[in-house]
Amino acid sequence: LDKFCLGLEPQTQVRFTSTTSALKAQTEKKTAKAAKESRTFQAIQEERKEEAERSVLISCPPKINEKKFLDYLSKHGTINKHFFYNSYGANAVVEFSSRESIASLKESINIPAVEHEAAVPFKSRLLSLKWPGSQSSNHPMPKFKEQSPPSINEITQLLSERDSMDEQLQCLTETLQLTEENISLRFLVCSLLRDIAGAYFPECIIRPFGSSVNSFGKLGCDVDMILDLDGIYATSQKKGSGLSLEYQVKRGASERAVTQSILSVIGKCVDQFGPGCVGVQSILQARCPLVRFAHQPSGFQCDLTANNRVAMKSSELLFLYGKLDPRVRHLVFSVRCWARAHSITSSIPGAWITNFSLTVMVVFFLQQRNPPILPTLDRLKELAEKLLQEFFEFYGNFPFNKASINIRKGKEQTKPETTALYIQNPFETTLNISKNVNATQLERFVALCRESAWLLQQKEILKQSSDSPWGFAALLLPSVTSGAGVKSRRKRKLEPASSRIKNLLDSLKIKGGETVAKKGSA
Ligand code: CTP
Ligand code: MG
Protein backbone atom coordinates (compact mmCIF):
# COMPACT_ATOMS: atom_id res chain seq x y z
CA LEU A 1 0.00 0.00 0.00
CA ASP A 2 2.89 2.35 0.88
CA LYS A 3 4.20 1.91 -2.57
CA PHE A 4 0.86 2.92 -4.04
CA CYS A 5 0.44 5.96 -1.78
CA LEU A 6 3.94 7.31 -2.27
CA GLY A 7 3.81 10.72 -3.83
CA LEU A 8 0.04 11.11 -3.61
CA GLU A 9 -1.71 14.12 -2.05
CA PRO A 10 -2.59 13.56 1.69
CA GLN A 11 -6.29 13.73 0.85
CA THR A 12 -5.96 11.01 -1.72
CA GLN A 13 -3.92 8.93 0.75
CA VAL A 14 -6.80 8.91 3.22
CA ARG A 15 -9.20 7.78 0.56
CA PHE A 16 -6.81 5.06 -0.55
CA THR A 17 -6.16 3.76 2.98
CA SER A 18 -9.86 3.38 3.54
CA THR A 19 -10.19 1.30 0.41
CA THR A 20 -7.50 -1.28 1.10
CA SER A 21 -9.70 -4.11 -0.05
CA ALA A 22 -10.43 -2.35 -3.33
CA LEU A 23 -6.70 -1.91 -3.85
CA LYS A 24 -6.08 -5.53 -3.00
CA ALA A 25 -8.62 -6.55 -5.58
CA GLN A 26 -6.97 -4.21 -8.05
CA THR A 27 -3.54 -5.69 -7.31
CA GLU A 28 -4.91 -9.21 -7.72
CA LYS A 29 -6.45 -8.18 -11.01
CA LYS A 30 -3.09 -6.80 -12.13
CA THR A 31 -1.30 -9.99 -11.08
CA ALA A 32 -3.87 -12.06 -12.93
CA LYS A 33 -3.41 -9.84 -16.01
CA ALA A 34 0.37 -10.19 -15.80
CA ALA A 35 0.00 -13.97 -15.44
CA LYS A 36 -2.31 -13.98 -18.45
CA GLU A 37 0.14 -11.94 -20.49
CA SER A 38 3.08 -14.19 -19.67
CA ARG A 39 1.33 -17.36 -20.87
CA THR A 40 2.93 -19.19 -23.75
CA PHE A 41 1.55 -18.97 -27.25
CA GLN A 42 0.45 -22.63 -27.02
CA ALA A 43 -1.34 -22.08 -23.68
CA ILE A 44 -3.30 -19.15 -25.11
CA GLN A 45 -4.31 -21.14 -28.20
CA GLU A 46 -5.33 -24.11 -26.07
CA GLU A 47 -7.52 -21.99 -23.80
CA ARG A 48 -9.28 -20.30 -26.70
CA LYS A 49 -9.85 -23.64 -28.43
CA GLU A 50 -11.36 -25.08 -25.28
CA GLU A 51 -13.66 -22.05 -24.87
CA ALA A 52 -14.79 -22.45 -28.48
CA GLU A 53 -15.71 -26.08 -27.84
CA ARG A 54 -18.12 -24.92 -25.13
CA SER A 55 -19.74 -22.31 -27.40
CA VAL A 56 -22.62 -22.11 -29.87
CA LEU A 57 -23.38 -19.65 -32.64
CA ILE A 58 -27.05 -18.64 -32.87
CA SER A 59 -28.78 -16.67 -35.62
CA CYS A 60 -31.34 -14.43 -33.87
CA PRO A 61 -34.38 -12.33 -34.78
CA PRO A 62 -33.50 -8.63 -35.15
CA LYS A 63 -35.24 -7.25 -32.04
CA ILE A 64 -33.86 -9.74 -29.57
CA ASN A 65 -34.83 -9.55 -25.90
CA GLU A 66 -31.44 -10.29 -24.35
CA LYS A 67 -32.72 -11.21 -20.90
CA LYS A 68 -35.34 -13.68 -22.16
CA PHE A 69 -32.77 -15.17 -24.53
CA LEU A 70 -30.22 -15.73 -21.75
CA ASP A 71 -32.84 -17.08 -19.34
CA TYR A 72 -33.95 -19.58 -21.96
CA LEU A 73 -30.39 -20.82 -22.64
CA SER A 74 -29.42 -20.87 -18.96
CA LYS A 75 -31.73 -23.85 -18.51
CA HIS A 76 -28.90 -25.89 -20.01
CA GLY A 77 -26.18 -24.56 -17.71
CA THR A 78 -24.20 -21.51 -16.63
CA ILE A 79 -23.31 -19.04 -19.37
CA ASN A 80 -19.72 -17.71 -19.09
CA LYS A 81 -19.78 -15.10 -21.83
CA HIS A 82 -21.96 -13.99 -24.69
CA PHE A 83 -22.03 -11.26 -27.32
CA PHE A 84 -24.12 -10.15 -30.29
CA TYR A 85 -22.92 -9.03 -33.73
CA ASN A 86 -24.29 -8.53 -37.23
CA SER A 87 -23.48 -10.71 -40.25
CA TYR A 88 -26.38 -11.34 -42.64
CA GLY A 89 -28.66 -10.48 -39.67
CA ALA A 90 -28.26 -10.63 -35.89
CA ASN A 91 -26.14 -13.39 -34.37
CA ALA A 92 -25.06 -14.37 -30.87
CA VAL A 93 -22.06 -16.30 -29.58
CA VAL A 94 -22.82 -18.01 -26.28
CA GLU A 95 -20.09 -19.68 -24.24
CA PHE A 96 -21.22 -22.10 -21.53
CA SER A 97 -19.03 -22.96 -18.57
CA SER A 98 -19.25 -26.67 -19.26
CA ARG A 99 -19.36 -28.84 -22.34
CA GLU A 100 -22.25 -30.82 -20.88
CA SER A 101 -24.48 -27.79 -21.50
CA ILE A 102 -23.87 -28.20 -25.22
CA ALA A 103 -24.95 -31.85 -25.05
CA SER A 104 -28.07 -30.89 -23.07
CA LEU A 105 -28.87 -28.07 -25.51
CA LYS A 106 -28.40 -30.34 -28.53
CA GLU A 107 -30.81 -32.89 -27.09
CA SER A 108 -33.55 -30.27 -26.98
CA ILE A 109 -33.12 -29.08 -30.58
CA ASN A 110 -34.82 -30.36 -33.74
CA ILE A 111 -33.74 -30.60 -37.34
CA PRO A 112 -36.21 -28.26 -39.09
CA ALA A 113 -38.78 -29.44 -41.59
CA VAL A 114 -38.09 -27.35 -44.69
CA GLU A 115 -40.71 -26.64 -47.32
CA HIS A 116 -40.14 -27.59 -51.00
CA GLU A 117 -36.59 -28.69 -50.19
CA ALA A 118 -34.93 -31.27 -47.95
CA ALA A 119 -32.51 -30.77 -45.06
CA VAL A 120 -29.12 -32.47 -44.65
CA PRO A 121 -29.59 -33.92 -41.16
CA PHE A 122 -26.27 -32.68 -39.73
CA LYS A 123 -26.34 -31.54 -36.11
CA SER A 124 -23.87 -28.71 -35.69
CA ARG A 125 -23.46 -25.94 -33.09
CA LEU A 126 -24.77 -23.40 -35.58
CA LEU A 127 -28.35 -22.76 -34.50
CA SER A 128 -31.35 -20.56 -35.30
CA LEU A 129 -33.53 -19.01 -32.65
CA LYS A 130 -37.26 -19.03 -33.38
CA TRP A 131 -39.31 -16.49 -31.46
CA PRO A 132 -43.06 -17.19 -31.40
CA GLY A 133 -45.35 -14.32 -32.36
CA SER A 134 -44.23 -10.75 -32.88
CA GLN A 135 -41.83 -9.33 -30.31
CA SER A 136 -42.48 -6.12 -28.48
CA SER A 137 -39.63 -3.64 -28.82
CA ASN A 138 -40.10 -2.11 -25.37
CA HIS A 139 -37.04 -3.87 -23.98
CA PRO A 140 -33.50 -2.41 -24.31
CA MET A 141 -31.64 -3.60 -27.41
CA PRO A 142 -28.43 -5.53 -26.80
CA LYS A 143 -25.12 -3.97 -27.87
CA PHE A 144 -23.83 -5.31 -31.17
CA LYS A 145 -20.05 -5.79 -31.37
CA GLU A 146 -18.36 -4.40 -34.46
CA GLN A 147 -16.53 -6.98 -36.58
CA SER A 148 -15.34 -4.80 -39.49
CA PRO A 149 -12.54 -2.23 -39.59
CA PRO A 150 -13.29 1.49 -40.00
CA SER A 151 -12.78 3.03 -43.47
CA ILE A 152 -9.65 5.03 -44.34
CA ASN A 153 -11.72 8.22 -44.06
CA GLU A 154 -12.94 7.29 -40.60
CA ILE A 155 -9.37 6.44 -39.57
CA THR A 156 -8.08 9.76 -40.92
CA GLN A 157 -10.75 11.59 -38.94
CA LEU A 158 -10.03 9.65 -35.76
CA LEU A 159 -6.27 10.19 -35.99
CA SER A 160 -6.58 13.90 -36.59
CA GLU A 161 -8.23 14.25 -33.17
CA ARG A 162 -5.16 12.87 -31.31
CA ASP A 163 -2.53 15.00 -29.60
CA SER A 164 0.67 13.57 -31.06
CA MET A 165 1.80 11.23 -33.79
CA ASP A 166 2.86 8.76 -31.10
CA GLU A 167 -0.76 8.70 -29.88
CA GLN A 168 -1.97 8.36 -33.47
CA LEU A 169 0.07 5.19 -34.00
CA GLN A 170 -1.17 3.70 -30.76
CA CYS A 171 -4.77 4.65 -31.59
CA LEU A 172 -4.39 3.08 -35.04
CA THR A 173 -3.32 -0.26 -33.53
CA GLU A 174 -6.15 -0.18 -30.99
CA THR A 175 -8.72 0.65 -33.66
CA LEU A 176 -7.64 -1.93 -36.22
CA GLN A 177 -6.54 -4.88 -34.09
CA LEU A 178 -8.76 -7.93 -33.57
CA THR A 179 -11.07 -7.62 -30.59
CA GLU A 180 -11.44 -10.35 -27.95
CA GLU A 181 -14.87 -11.17 -29.40
CA ASN A 182 -13.56 -11.34 -32.95
CA ILE A 183 -10.78 -13.75 -31.90
CA SER A 184 -13.34 -15.92 -30.03
CA LEU A 185 -15.47 -16.01 -33.18
CA ARG A 186 -12.42 -17.12 -35.23
CA PHE A 187 -11.74 -20.00 -32.84
CA LEU A 188 -15.45 -20.91 -32.84
CA VAL A 189 -15.52 -21.13 -36.65
CA CYS A 190 -12.46 -23.46 -36.51
CA SER A 191 -14.20 -25.54 -33.88
CA LEU A 192 -17.41 -25.79 -35.98
CA LEU A 193 -15.31 -26.89 -38.94
CA ARG A 194 -13.56 -29.46 -36.75
CA ASP A 195 -16.95 -31.06 -36.05
CA ILE A 196 -17.29 -31.70 -39.79
CA ALA A 197 -13.73 -32.97 -40.29
CA GLY A 198 -14.10 -35.00 -37.08
CA ALA A 199 -16.57 -37.26 -38.86
CA TYR A 200 -13.57 -38.68 -40.76
CA PHE A 201 -10.76 -38.05 -38.29
CA PRO A 202 -12.08 -37.99 -34.72
CA GLU A 203 -8.62 -37.06 -33.34
CA CYS A 204 -8.17 -34.04 -35.59
CA ILE A 205 -8.00 -30.41 -34.47
CA ILE A 206 -8.55 -27.38 -36.68
CA ARG A 207 -6.31 -24.54 -35.52
CA PRO A 208 -6.23 -20.94 -36.68
CA PHE A 209 -2.81 -19.57 -37.70
CA GLY A 210 -1.47 -16.46 -39.48
CA SER A 211 -2.83 -13.05 -38.55
CA SER A 212 -5.76 -14.49 -36.52
CA VAL A 213 -3.24 -15.49 -33.83
CA ASN A 214 0.10 -13.73 -34.50
CA SER A 215 -1.12 -10.45 -32.90
CA PHE A 216 -0.88 -8.54 -36.20
CA GLY A 217 -4.42 -9.35 -37.39
CA LYS A 218 -6.67 -6.51 -38.47
CA LEU A 219 -10.47 -6.67 -38.18
CA GLY A 220 -11.76 -8.19 -41.40
CA CYS A 221 -8.66 -10.30 -42.18
CA ASP A 222 -9.12 -13.87 -43.38
CA VAL A 223 -9.06 -16.94 -41.11
CA ASP A 224 -6.14 -19.21 -41.99
CA MET A 225 -6.71 -22.72 -40.64
CA ILE A 226 -4.67 -25.88 -40.32
CA LEU A 227 -6.16 -29.34 -40.15
CA ASP A 228 -3.88 -30.81 -37.50
CA LEU A 229 -3.77 -34.63 -37.61
CA ASP A 230 -0.81 -35.02 -35.25
CA GLY A 231 -3.07 -36.52 -32.55
CA ILE A 232 -3.58 -39.57 -34.81
CA TYR A 233 0.12 -40.38 -34.81
CA ALA A 234 0.44 -40.34 -31.01
CA THR A 235 1.14 -43.91 -29.90
CA SER A 236 0.62 -45.58 -26.58
CA GLN A 237 2.36 -48.88 -27.30
CA LYS A 238 3.37 -50.85 -24.28
CA LYS A 239 6.51 -52.95 -24.39
CA GLY A 240 5.87 -56.59 -23.60
CA SER A 241 5.47 -59.81 -25.50
CA GLY A 242 7.10 -58.50 -28.69
CA LEU A 243 3.80 -58.66 -30.51
CA SER A 244 2.23 -55.50 -31.77
CA LEU A 245 -0.63 -54.39 -33.93
CA GLU A 246 -0.81 -51.61 -36.43
CA TYR A 247 -3.54 -50.09 -38.55
CA GLN A 248 -3.92 -51.13 -42.14
CA VAL A 249 -3.83 -47.95 -44.16
CA LYS A 250 -4.38 -46.83 -47.69
CA ARG A 251 -1.21 -45.37 -49.21
CA GLY A 252 -0.68 -42.29 -51.34
CA ALA A 253 2.19 -41.51 -53.74
CA SER A 254 3.62 -38.79 -51.47
CA GLU A 255 2.83 -36.76 -48.38
CA ARG A 256 1.55 -34.01 -50.68
CA ALA A 257 -0.76 -36.45 -52.48
CA VAL A 258 -2.20 -37.65 -49.16
CA THR A 259 -2.75 -34.03 -48.01
CA GLN A 260 -4.49 -33.27 -51.31
CA SER A 261 -6.82 -36.23 -51.03
CA ILE A 262 -7.73 -35.44 -47.40
CA LEU A 263 -8.42 -31.79 -48.22
CA SER A 264 -10.40 -32.73 -51.30
CA VAL A 265 -12.76 -34.95 -49.27
CA ILE A 266 -13.11 -32.43 -46.43
CA GLY A 267 -13.69 -29.66 -48.96
CA LYS A 268 -16.58 -31.67 -50.47
CA CYS A 269 -17.97 -32.34 -47.03
CA VAL A 270 -17.82 -28.64 -46.07
CA ASP A 271 -19.50 -27.77 -49.35
CA GLN A 272 -22.33 -30.29 -49.06
CA PHE A 273 -22.92 -30.63 -45.31
CA GLY A 274 -21.42 -27.52 -43.71
CA PRO A 275 -24.20 -25.11 -42.68
CA GLY A 276 -23.30 -21.51 -43.53
CA CYS A 277 -20.29 -22.48 -45.68
CA VAL A 278 -20.58 -21.12 -49.23
CA GLY A 279 -18.38 -20.63 -52.31
CA VAL A 280 -16.17 -23.62 -51.49
CA GLN A 281 -13.13 -23.85 -53.79
CA SER A 282 -10.52 -26.60 -53.57
CA ILE A 283 -7.16 -25.18 -54.63
CA LEU A 284 -5.21 -28.41 -54.39
CA GLN A 285 -2.44 -27.70 -56.92
CA ALA A 286 -1.04 -24.71 -54.99
CA ARG A 287 2.37 -25.04 -53.28
CA CYS A 288 0.38 -25.30 -50.09
CA PRO A 289 -2.90 -27.06 -51.06
CA LEU A 290 -5.98 -25.43 -49.53
CA VAL A 291 -9.77 -25.29 -49.42
CA ARG A 292 -11.14 -21.73 -49.57
CA PHE A 293 -14.69 -20.82 -48.55
CA ALA A 294 -16.81 -18.11 -46.99
CA HIS A 295 -18.44 -18.74 -43.63
CA GLN A 296 -21.56 -16.58 -43.79
CA PRO A 297 -22.71 -16.61 -40.13
CA SER A 298 -19.35 -15.13 -39.07
CA GLY A 299 -18.65 -13.18 -42.27
CA PHE A 300 -15.13 -14.70 -42.47
CA GLN A 301 -13.23 -15.74 -45.56
CA CYS A 302 -11.48 -19.00 -44.63
CA ASP A 303 -8.43 -20.85 -46.01
CA LEU A 304 -8.11 -24.40 -44.73
CA THR A 305 -4.71 -26.09 -45.18
CA ALA A 306 -3.28 -29.32 -43.80
CA ASN A 307 0.17 -30.64 -42.95
CA ASN A 308 1.52 -27.12 -42.51
CA ARG A 309 3.40 -27.16 -39.19
CA VAL A 310 5.91 -24.55 -40.31
CA ALA A 311 3.17 -21.92 -40.72
CA MET A 312 2.16 -22.41 -37.08
CA LYS A 313 5.78 -21.88 -36.04
CA SER A 314 6.04 -18.70 -38.07
CA SER A 315 2.81 -17.42 -36.45
CA GLU A 316 4.36 -18.05 -33.03
CA LEU A 317 7.59 -16.32 -34.04
CA LEU A 318 5.70 -13.20 -35.12
CA PHE A 319 3.62 -13.33 -31.93
CA LEU A 320 6.85 -13.33 -29.89
CA TYR A 321 8.30 -10.44 -31.89
CA GLY A 322 5.06 -8.52 -31.27
CA LYS A 323 5.41 -9.08 -27.53
CA LEU A 324 9.04 -7.93 -27.29
CA ASP A 325 8.16 -4.28 -27.54
CA PRO A 326 4.77 -2.57 -28.08
CA ARG A 327 6.31 -0.45 -30.83
CA VAL A 328 6.70 -3.54 -33.02
CA ARG A 329 2.91 -3.87 -33.33
CA HIS A 330 2.42 -0.12 -33.72
CA LEU A 331 4.93 -0.05 -36.54
CA VAL A 332 3.45 -3.11 -38.27
CA PHE A 333 -0.11 -1.77 -38.04
CA SER A 334 0.89 1.65 -39.35
CA VAL A 335 3.01 0.30 -42.21
CA ARG A 336 0.20 -2.09 -43.21
CA CYS A 337 -2.41 0.67 -43.03
CA TRP A 338 -0.19 2.99 -45.08
CA ALA A 339 0.38 0.22 -47.65
CA ARG A 340 -3.35 -0.53 -47.90
CA ALA A 341 -4.27 3.16 -48.27
CA HIS A 342 -1.88 3.40 -51.24
CA SER A 343 -2.89 0.05 -52.81
CA ILE A 344 0.58 -1.42 -52.20
CA THR A 345 -1.34 -4.35 -50.70
CA SER A 346 -4.71 -5.65 -51.86
CA SER A 347 -7.34 -8.10 -50.67
CA ILE A 348 -7.19 -9.78 -54.10
CA PRO A 349 -4.29 -12.23 -54.67
CA GLY A 350 -1.77 -11.02 -57.27
CA ALA A 351 1.67 -9.53 -57.80
CA TRP A 352 1.34 -7.20 -54.81
CA ILE A 353 3.38 -7.27 -51.64
CA THR A 354 1.42 -9.20 -48.99
CA ASN A 355 0.81 -8.20 -45.39
CA PHE A 356 2.92 -11.14 -44.29
CA SER A 357 5.88 -9.93 -46.41
CA LEU A 358 5.47 -6.41 -44.99
CA THR A 359 5.49 -7.75 -41.44
CA VAL A 360 8.72 -9.67 -42.05
CA MET A 361 10.19 -6.51 -43.62
CA VAL A 362 9.38 -4.56 -40.44
CA VAL A 363 10.99 -7.25 -38.28
CA PHE A 364 14.11 -7.20 -40.47
CA PHE A 365 14.28 -3.42 -40.30
CA LEU A 366 14.09 -3.52 -36.50
CA GLN A 367 16.87 -6.10 -36.39
CA GLN A 368 19.07 -3.92 -38.56
CA ARG A 369 18.75 -0.85 -36.37
CA ASN A 370 21.68 0.21 -34.29
CA PRO A 371 21.19 -0.61 -31.40
CA PRO A 372 19.12 -3.55 -32.67
CA ILE A 373 16.00 -3.73 -30.52
CA LEU A 374 15.76 -1.82 -27.27
CA PRO A 375 17.04 1.73 -27.05
CA THR A 376 17.59 3.85 -23.89
CA LEU A 377 14.59 5.25 -22.04
CA ASP A 378 15.32 8.81 -23.19
CA ARG A 379 15.07 7.83 -26.80
CA LEU A 380 11.85 5.83 -26.41
CA LYS A 381 9.46 8.70 -26.95
CA GLU A 382 11.48 10.19 -29.75
CA LEU A 383 11.82 6.80 -31.41
CA ALA A 384 8.08 6.04 -31.30
CA GLU A 385 7.66 8.68 -34.00
CA LYS A 386 11.03 8.31 -35.59
CA LEU A 387 10.78 4.58 -36.28
CA LEU A 388 8.14 5.01 -38.93
CA GLN A 389 10.19 7.66 -40.70
CA GLU A 390 13.31 5.51 -40.50
CA PHE A 391 11.37 2.51 -41.77
CA PHE A 392 10.46 4.48 -44.90
CA GLU A 393 14.05 5.71 -45.29
CA PHE A 394 15.41 2.19 -44.80
CA TYR A 395 13.24 0.62 -47.51
CA GLY A 396 13.33 3.73 -49.70
CA ASN A 397 17.06 3.10 -50.02
CA PHE A 398 17.29 -0.68 -49.68
CA PRO A 399 19.35 -2.35 -52.45
CA PHE A 400 16.48 -4.62 -53.54
CA ASN A 401 18.24 -5.31 -56.86
CA LYS A 402 21.04 -7.31 -55.24
CA ALA A 403 20.13 -7.98 -51.62
CA SER A 404 17.61 -10.31 -50.00
CA ILE A 405 15.92 -9.97 -46.62
CA ASN A 406 16.83 -12.65 -44.13
CA ILE A 407 15.43 -12.51 -40.60
CA ARG A 408 17.12 -15.76 -39.62
CA LYS A 409 20.49 -14.02 -39.89
CA GLY A 410 19.19 -10.44 -39.38
CA LYS A 411 21.44 -9.36 -42.25
CA GLU A 412 21.09 -8.62 -45.94
CA GLN A 413 22.19 -11.55 -48.09
CA THR A 414 23.03 -11.75 -51.76
CA LYS A 415 19.86 -12.55 -53.71
CA PRO A 416 19.97 -16.19 -54.86
CA GLU A 417 17.70 -15.47 -57.86
CA THR A 418 16.53 -12.51 -59.91
CA THR A 419 13.00 -12.05 -58.50
CA ALA A 420 12.10 -8.41 -57.74
CA LEU A 421 11.71 -8.90 -54.00
CA TYR A 422 13.42 -11.73 -52.14
CA ILE A 423 12.44 -12.40 -48.52
CA GLN A 424 13.72 -15.71 -47.27
CA ASN A 425 11.18 -17.92 -45.49
CA PRO A 426 12.78 -18.23 -42.01
CA PHE A 427 11.77 -21.86 -41.62
CA GLU A 428 11.90 -23.21 -45.16
CA THR A 429 15.07 -21.39 -46.11
CA THR A 430 15.02 -22.28 -49.81
CA LEU A 431 11.70 -20.49 -50.31
CA ASN A 432 11.06 -16.84 -51.12
CA ILE A 433 7.91 -15.65 -49.33
CA SER A 434 7.47 -12.75 -51.76
CA LYS A 435 8.05 -14.64 -55.00
CA ASN A 436 4.75 -13.27 -56.34
CA VAL A 437 5.86 -9.62 -56.25
CA ASN A 438 6.74 -8.08 -59.63
CA ALA A 439 9.14 -5.19 -60.36
CA THR A 440 6.36 -2.61 -60.86
CA GLN A 441 4.81 -3.32 -57.49
CA LEU A 442 8.19 -3.13 -55.78
CA GLU A 443 8.97 0.18 -57.50
CA ARG A 444 5.67 1.65 -56.28
CA PHE A 445 6.49 0.53 -52.75
CA VAL A 446 9.96 2.12 -52.88
CA ALA A 447 8.63 5.36 -54.41
CA LEU A 448 5.96 5.65 -51.71
CA CYS A 449 8.49 4.90 -48.97
CA ARG A 450 10.63 7.79 -50.25
CA GLU A 451 7.71 10.15 -50.51
CA SER A 452 6.46 9.28 -47.03
CA ALA A 453 9.96 9.61 -45.53
CA TRP A 454 10.23 13.03 -47.11
CA LEU A 455 6.79 14.06 -45.85
CA LEU A 456 7.70 13.08 -42.30
CA GLN A 457 10.80 15.27 -42.49
CA GLN A 458 8.56 18.29 -43.08
CA LYS A 459 7.79 19.80 -39.69
CA GLU A 460 4.53 21.19 -41.00
CA ILE A 461 3.07 17.72 -41.45
CA LEU A 462 3.56 17.00 -37.75
CA LYS A 463 1.71 20.10 -36.58
CA GLN A 464 -1.74 19.40 -35.22
CA SER A 465 -4.47 20.85 -37.35
CA SER A 466 -8.22 20.77 -37.11
CA ASP A 467 -8.97 21.42 -40.77
CA SER A 468 -6.71 18.92 -42.54
CA PRO A 469 -5.18 15.50 -41.93
CA TRP A 470 -1.84 15.77 -40.14
CA GLY A 471 0.79 13.38 -38.79
CA PHE A 472 0.17 9.78 -39.82
CA ALA A 473 -3.22 10.72 -41.32
CA ALA A 474 -1.38 12.92 -43.87
CA LEU A 475 0.56 9.86 -45.05
CA LEU A 476 -2.70 8.24 -46.07
CA LEU A 477 -3.53 10.98 -48.57
CA PRO A 478 -3.15 10.14 -52.28
CA SER A 479 0.47 10.25 -53.38
CA VAL A 480 1.89 12.50 -56.08
CA THR A 481 5.35 11.13 -56.74
CA SER A 482 5.22 7.51 -57.80
CA GLY A 483 4.38 7.58 -61.50
CA ALA A 484 3.23 3.98 -61.53
CA GLY A 485 1.23 4.66 -58.39
CA VAL A 486 -0.61 7.59 -59.85
CA LYS A 487 -1.50 5.65 -62.94
CA SER A 488 -2.80 2.62 -61.12
CA ARG A 489 -4.81 4.70 -58.70
CA ARG A 490 -6.44 6.90 -61.30
CA LYS A 491 -9.56 4.81 -61.09
CA ARG A 492 -9.95 5.48 -57.39
CA LYS A 493 -12.08 8.39 -56.34
CA LEU A 494 -9.48 10.71 -54.84
CA GLU A 495 -10.28 13.34 -52.31
CA PRO A 496 -8.55 16.65 -52.94
CA ALA A 497 -5.70 17.09 -50.47
CA SER A 498 -5.90 20.22 -48.36
CA SER A 499 -4.03 23.18 -49.80
CA ARG A 500 -1.44 22.93 -47.01
CA ILE A 501 -0.50 19.41 -47.98
CA LYS A 502 -0.87 20.11 -51.67
CA ASN A 503 1.73 22.86 -51.34
CA LEU A 504 4.05 20.53 -49.51
CA LEU A 505 3.62 17.88 -52.15
CA ASP A 506 4.16 20.39 -54.95
CA SER A 507 7.42 21.50 -53.40
CA LEU A 508 8.35 17.82 -53.08
CA LYS A 509 8.01 17.49 -56.86
CA ILE A 510 10.48 20.31 -57.38
CA LYS A 511 13.16 20.09 -54.72
CA GLY A 512 12.31 16.74 -53.07
CA GLY A 513 12.55 14.86 -56.36
CA GLU A 514 16.17 15.85 -56.51
CA THR A 515 17.05 14.88 -52.94
CA VAL A 516 15.19 11.63 -53.19
CA ALA A 517 16.85 10.77 -56.47
CA LYS A 518 20.28 11.46 -54.98
CA LYS A 519 19.52 9.41 -51.91
CA GLY A 520 18.21 6.57 -54.04
CA SER A 521 21.33 6.34 -56.15
CA ALA A 522 23.63 6.57 -53.13
N1 CTP B 1 2.83 -17.90 -45.12
C1 CTP B 1 4.11 -18.34 -45.43
N2 CTP B 1 4.68 -18.03 -46.63
C2 CTP B 1 4.02 -17.27 -47.55
C3 CTP B 1 2.72 -16.84 -47.25
C4 CTP B 1 2.15 -17.16 -46.03
O1 CTP B 1 4.73 -19.00 -44.60
N3 CTP B 1 4.59 -16.97 -48.71
C5 CTP B 1 2.23 -18.25 -43.82
C6 CTP B 1 2.54 -17.21 -42.74
O2 CTP B 1 2.66 -17.89 -41.51
C7 CTP B 1 1.30 -16.34 -42.74
C8 CTP B 1 0.22 -17.37 -43.02
O3 CTP B 1 0.82 -18.29 -43.93
O4 CTP B 1 1.11 -15.64 -41.52
C9 CTP B 1 -1.06 -16.83 -43.59
O5 CTP B 1 -0.83 -16.15 -44.81
P1 CTP B 1 -1.64 -14.84 -45.19
O6 CTP B 1 -3.10 -15.05 -44.90
O7 CTP B 1 -1.23 -14.45 -46.54
O8 CTP B 1 -0.99 -13.76 -44.19
P2 CTP B 1 -1.41 -13.25 -42.76
O9 CTP B 1 -0.16 -13.15 -41.94
O10 CTP B 1 -2.52 -14.08 -42.20
O11 CTP B 1 -1.91 -11.75 -43.06
P3 CTP B 1 -3.38 -11.26 -43.54
O12 CTP B 1 -3.88 -10.45 -42.38
O13 CTP B 1 -3.13 -10.42 -44.74
O14 CTP B 1 -4.23 -12.45 -43.83
MG1 MG C 1 -4.31 -14.43 -43.28
TrEMBL record:
The keyword Coiled coil applies. Residues 155-182 form a coiled coil. It comes from the Eukaryota. Its cofactor is Mn(2+); Mg(2+). Keywords: Coiled coil, Magnesium, Metal-binding, Transferase. One of its GO terms (biological process) is RNA 3'-end processing. GO terms for cellular component: mitochondrion. Residues 40-108 form the RL domain. Residues 386-430 form the PAP-associated domain. Pfam families: MTPAP-like_central, PAP_assoc, RL. GO terms for molecular function: metal ion binding; poly(A) RNA polymerase activity. InterPro entries: MTPAP-like_central, NT_sf, PAP_assoc, RL. Residues 166-322 form the Poly(A) RNA polymerase mitochondrial-like central palm domain. This is Mitochondrial poly(A) polymerase. It comes from Cyprinus carpio carpio.
